[in-house]
């Protein structure tokens, strides 16, 4: 039976990406499927959460697939956005926000965009 696995992010610097996503989402490295071109990150209870794969393709400025990270309030969103920026995320200069967005677009240290979504304000209109 087919089932959904987990998201995989293409990165140029595996160690830097693993450090960022471990800190961002309280994940840890797994020895499973890990080598110089791949790192599996798992939750505290060992569930697979995120795969990181070395990639030579350029970062897509507006990818069709991306991660949404959830928070429960505008205050939490503001705090998490700042924490992620402090960890090495950046503001990619996103210009396609709706009038009253429930999300903030950031980029990881490799330039892959993701969103921090305030669920108390969702969905975006």
UniProtKB/TrEMBL annotation:
InterPro entries cross-referenced by the UniProt entry: Glyas_Bleomycin-R_OHBP_Dase, Glyoxalase_6, VOC_core
Pfam families: Glyoxalase_6
Origin: domain of life: Bacteria
PROSITE patterns xrefs: VOC
Domain VOC: 3-119
SUPFAM superfamilies hit by this protein: Glyoxalase/Bleomycin resistance protein/Dihydroxybiphenyl dioxygenase (SSF54593)
PANTHER family xref list: CONSERVED PROTEIN (PTHR35908:SF1), HYPOTHETICAL FUSION PROTEIN (PTHR35908)
Record-given protein name: VOC family protein
Organism of origin: Actinomycetospora termitidis
């Amino acid at each position: 039976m087919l089932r959904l696995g987990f998201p995989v992010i293409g990165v140029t610097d595996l160690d830097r990406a693993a450090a960022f996503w471990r800190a961002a989402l309280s994940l840890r490295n797994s020895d499973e499927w890990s080598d110089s071109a791949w790192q599996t990150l798992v939750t505290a209870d060992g569930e697979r959460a995120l795969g990181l794969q070395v990639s030579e393709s350029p970062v897509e400025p507006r990818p069709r697939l991306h991660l949404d990270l959830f928070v429960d309030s505008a205050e939490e969103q503001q705090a998490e956005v700042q924490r992620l920026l402090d960890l090495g995320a950046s503001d990619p200069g996103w210009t396609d926000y709706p009038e009253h967005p429930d999300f903030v677009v950031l980029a990881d240290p490799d330039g892959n965009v993701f969103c921090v979504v305030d669920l108390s304000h969702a969905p975006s209109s």
